[in-house]
Amino acid sequence: EIEFFEKQCLNSPDKFVNVMKDFYTVAAYSFSSVEESLNEMKLKYEWTLKTFCEDPQKVQPEEFFLCIDNFVTGMADARSENEKFKKQEEEKERRKHIEEQLKKEKEKRQLRQECYSTSDKNKNLIVFDNGDKGEFDDLISALRTGDVFGDDM
User: Which of 90, 110, 108 is nearest to 98 (CA)?
Assistant: First the structure.
């Protein structure tokens, strides 16, 4: 068509032919580039189907890519479930550790209370190792201050 208009408008000041020639050149180049990309895509698609043991003549792209999408979605779900399970296990371990610590502290408190009650019942028996040292320190302190001698001196 451009050739037809070119012959008709030789002496005309119309720029249609010049503009369309440039457009046609660019469009033809772009079209050939897209066509090459299409052929390359078809070859890669066929190679991919063969890699997944599918028949390129029977399987449509929509069907194939739906299967791939389902797989990727399932994989993402499995990862999130595994992460959730891992967090639950960590929380369970943390709680178990805290419970063990609380149990140990409770046992220590019970032992202390038993020791206090034993020392209350038996005033002369001192259960703690530090108890003798505390009384001795009190006696030394009383000697230094003179409280042991009383007001008679």
Answer: 90
